[in-house]
Amino acid sequence: MMALERHQTREAFPLVLNQFDSQASSYNDNSFVASQWSSGQPVTTDLFLEMNGCYNAMEGMEELLPTPPSSWHPGNPIYEAASRSLAPVDEVAYMRLFSHQQQHPQIKEHLPPESLSFDPPPRAIRAVTPDPTAMLASRFQDRGIITTRFDQYNEMDFAIHTISFAGRYDQGDSFPLHIDPIGLNVNGQLEFFGAMKEGDEPGFKPLSPAASSSQIQPLARSPQQDAIQKIYDYIEAHPNDPIPASYISRELFEFRNGLGWCLMGDCAVGRAAHKDGPLSKTPRFWGRLNHLYDHIRGVHFNHRPFQCSLSPTCQMSFVRKDDLACHKFRRHRYQRFPCGMCDNVYTLQDNLKLHIQCKHVDTLISMHLSGVLSAPATRVHNPEG
DNA sequence: CAGCAGGGGGCGA
DNA sequence: CGCCCCCTGCTGC
């Protein structure tokens, strides 16, 4: 194999795409290989996975194809997407990967299950705590007659990503009914993909910003990815502001007939499990949109813009304003005493009483005489007023 | 006890 | 609809 830079291969040699077969040794029905050919021999070969309309490039397959196939042609959208992916990228990183692939050629086989019990294949990825395969197993272990198995592909020491698939097998079947990519291991950090929403065909929607990293660049970004990226951009630009509801777009949740549910991450997995059959995880519903927004802000983005400033040693921050208020009261015994007759607010009740005696004594007397006097309002929480 | 998160009333644009 | 505020229950330490 010639060591060419990517832009050289792209310019010099034609791109050929062939769909990977669906035999037991293949990856899956939605995978295909993009190769660039010179004199009948491929010079670069990339594996692509089509996932719910997104094409993820899994770089560096060393396996050479016997003959240039012709099932994909220029003009085909997948061809175009793959062709764009072969545009020049980080040449240094690519050459490192290229040389690594030459020294350590790898191709993974699809291993059909030997039994219906969950039995993950041996894995050789870098140490991850907790083990992502075990975490995936715990999410899908109760599927009734459908057995879930996690097959690991494209494990590369150099790089960067390992994708976990949940294949579903019927009783006695050796081959999966279908395969959902549901997890992604990026640099040892496990990310999950939401599986599907109601009405979707089996597939997945990438949910993590990791999926849009430069190392795993989906060739066609999903609307959900765009929405998530937009929120991350907002958080970066406004770290001290809560995520506006207008940023939490319909790609991230559904709200129908007075009930809403989250389409992100674990929630979407639970939703999909609920739809598919026996519950492995109960989906959560929300009756009010603002609580759903709070959930997405806190659980899926962990954005905590409300920081406690009452003590230099207190580093607590909160997703919600009222949680910060509660914290201030409970931890710091901090509260505010607003005057019911003007806008002044005091941190000590004595100061409030003093203020009322000095500034509002006339009002107090008239209220007392008219019989409408009541105690000044005091607020327990709500220190922000 | 403290943090977290959902329920619900209310207000204003 | 978006937001604020308060209430409440759960959970982990």
Summary, kept brief:
With 385 residues, the chain is α+β, with helices and mostly antiparallel strands.
Protein described:
This protein is an alpha+beta fold and about 375 residues long. It has three domains: about 5-105, no CATH class; about 130-300, no CATH class; about 335-385, no CATH class. Helix content is about 30%, strand content about 20%. The chain has helices at about 5-10, 75-85, 90-105, 130-140, 225-235, 265-275, 290-300, 320-330, 350-360, 360-370; strands spanning about 15-20, 30-40, 40-50, 55-60, 145-155, 160-170, 180-185, 190, 255, 260, 285, 305, 315-320, 335-340, 345. The strands form five sheets. It has a four-stranded antiparallel β-sheet with strand order 1-2-3-4, covered by helices on one side. It is elongated and about 65 Å long.
List the SSEs and their pairings.
Elements: H1 6-12, E1 15-19, E2 31-38, E3 41-51, E4 54-58, H2 77-85, H3 91-103, H4 132-140, E5 147-153, E6 161-169, E7 178-186, E8 189-192, H5 223-237, E9 253-256, E10 259-262, H6 265-276, E11 285-286, H7 289-300, E12 306-307, E13 317-318, H8 321-332, E14 337-338, E15 345-346, H9 349-359, H10 361-370
This protein binds a DNA duplex (13 and 13 nucleotides) through residues 244-246, 284, 286-291, 293-295, 298-299, 316, 318-323, 325-327, 330-331, 380-382.
Strand fraction: 15-25%
Number of strands: 15
Estimated radius of gyration: 29 Å
Helix content: 25-40%
Distance between the amino and carboxyl termini? 70 Å
Q: Provide the domain count.
A: 3
Biggest sheet: strand arrangement: 1-2-3-4
Largest sheet: 4 strands, antiparallel
Derived structural class: alpha+beta
Order of helices and strands: HEEEEHHHEEEEHEEHEHEEHEEHH
**So what's the overall shape?**
elongated
Give unreliable regions as ranges: 1-12, 19-31, 49-73, 85-91, 104-221, 272-282, 373-385
Average pLDDT score? 52
Q: How many individual helices?
A: 10
Keywords: Metal-binding, Zinc, Zinc-finger
GO molecular function: zinc ion binding
Protein name: C2H2-type domain-containing protein
